[in-house]
Amino acid sequence: MVNYYDILGLPTTAGITEIKAAFRHLAKLYHPDINPQGKEQFSKILKAYETLSDSRLKLVYDQKLNSPYSQRAEKEKTKPGAKNWRFDERELKRRQYYNEHIKQYEKKTTKQSSAVEQKANYNEFKYILFATPLAVILFLGIMSVTSPRKSNHNTSSDQKVENTAFLKTTSDLKLGDAPYTDYFGTELYDTSQKQTLRIKNLTGLDVVVCLFKETVFVRNFFIANNYSAEVSQLPPEALTLNYSSGLYFDSSRKLNKGTLSGSFTRNSRFYKSNRPIAFSSINELTLLPGVNQGFSPVNEFEFFRK
User: Fold this and answer.
1) Does the global pTM surpass 0.85?
2) How far apart are CA 176 and CA 178, in angstroms?
3) Domain stops at, among 63, 84, 105
4) Were both Cys, which of 47, 105, 133, 179 would link to 262 (CB 3.0–4.6 Å)?
5) Is residue 104 pLDDT above 80, yes or no?
6) Which residues contact 198 (CB under 8 A, 6 or more apart)?
7) Is the distance from CB of 249 to CB of 168 less than 8 angstroms?
């Protein structure tokens, strides 16, 4: 039986004050933070302290230590010429035997297994090298038969423009830019009027707003998401307001069967007002996500119909 009193260097009659003092002294010598080599010894000291500093555990331990069986075992351990084996020593012998005999055998077996596995992997790799070119040739042959041929050079160019537009992540327009003036015609300003229209864009997307007086084009302008624009010098008549929404406006992107350039490359939608809107001297309109009240979704051909 391990004698915790001996580990702490105390007599069996030591009290709690002596036990704590001995532990503090030994901890300064063997704590792993101070003495990395004393980790094992510190574990024994800590175990001894935890047992002897607890009155209940100490009572049980003292009874076992002072039992006749424990004393007889201690005497037999200290017999002259007797081999006093400890758990640590047996463990050391076992590990030494393992390193000298068992571990060497395991290394040999592992090397043999690795050689066999390496050989198998080499054979598999050889077959892969042989089969890959055949698979590529077969794939290209199938693709050449099933893929539609390009009709002309213009089709290839249009496809290239579409792919470039899809990858676009910025907009070509700034607040107030008028991308469709060339298509719809000259913008209309009535300098005699003080009518002003403020439009807030809360759609979650960018928008291009187009204003018309019956069939006469008045104004168009770009509003980024969460921004507002104020338009002045508008005619006094009721106006039709149409708008396109989306992300990443590309000025080079063809629309309406190639009759004009400029469109959103993602989430592009078109909306027309159901009827003209009469404005007073100062008005404010807020565009919200989805289909706003008084508007209907249309396709791009209907949107750009003159």
Assistant:
1) no
2) 6
3) 84
4) 179
5) no
6) 228, 229, 230, 231, 282, 283, 284, 285
7) no
